[in-house]
Amino acid sequence: MRAQVLDAVRAELGEHGYDGLTVDAVAARSGVHRATVYRRWGDVGGLLADVLDAAGDDGWQPPDTGSLAGDLAALNHEIQAAMTAEPPVMAALIAASFRSAQADAAQRRLWADRYARCEVIVDRAIGHGELPAGTRARPLLVASTAPVYHHLVLLRLPPDPALPDQAARTAALAARHGAFTDR
Amino acid sequence: MRAQVLDAVRAELGEHGYDGLTVDAVAARSGVHRATVYRRWGDVGGLLADVLDAAGDDGWQPPDTGSLAGDLAALNHEIQAAMTAEPPVMAALIAASFRSAQADAAQRRLWADRYARCEVIVDRAIGHGELPAGTRARPLLVASTAPVYHHLVLLRLPPDPALPDQAARTAALAARHGAFTDR
Lengths: 183, 183
Description:
By secondary structure, chain A is mainly α. Chain A has two domains: 54 residues, Homeodomain-like (Arc Repressor Mutant, subunit A), CATH 1.10.10; 116 residues, Orthogonal Bundle (Tetracycline Repressor, domain 2). The mean pLDDT of chain A is 94. Chain A is built from nine helices and no strands. The interface between A and B is medium-sized, with 33 and 34 residues.
């Protein structure tokens, strides 16, 4: 039942955005009785939070291409593809996190989980000598991914097909030169 | 009259956020007749757009510290200070740009204007030989500033006092190594 309801939330969100999302429409679309939806999820904020929490349970693992720059570039291409997918579910979830305290908290949990899973990219690069020992994973991952999010979510510019590779290359180059070994 | 009304918008937005912002409260706070406010600005979206457009008319110039890394770091400190100021007017304007089409368009104009003004930082660094000729200003500026916005606006983590300098240093290092000379 959870899967049907969350599928319906994603579909409604993609079609109508946060402003058009209602518990009643989700219940109708999912075929689950609306009283059940209200009892289990409470409101739109609860539904959005559960979509985000479910995204964190998906077994996702970061790319493993054999090189740091390759892994970071593949990660950025995944991010750009997700952020520009139609219907725009991920973009709508980020927008919703500015509106609903529950969605905000769930979105923060998801960011923290995703960046933690990605730390293995940096560990591997240190392991095979591509990066100096003591390179800090989190600021390197933020440096690599932030330009892609910034371009699409805040600047709201059309996707730049070169940006995922360029941001990854830039972060990897700086990391090899020790930009993230101390502060 | 415009200055009083826009001051009132910023004050109401800082105190109550987008959801608490009303034309009537802005009119009352500014001492301007509400019919006048409705006639000139239309609605909350029109008021927000004018606050953002006014921010673009402020004669702001980017820092000029004598070095690329210094300029980028000073810029990042300005951004971090603005994003964490109380009341949180800038953060509320960014959040509002997800809600109002007029605020969204005005926010895009402001981003474009600010990044265009900052290109002189890169021109100066090329001029005194700190950066290779042909370094592209915009992706370098995005690489330097994006981590600060990403950390505060999307990840919504507490401000990291080391991040403005670190992101600036990282972008400057990559730029010196030619990361932004081609794509």
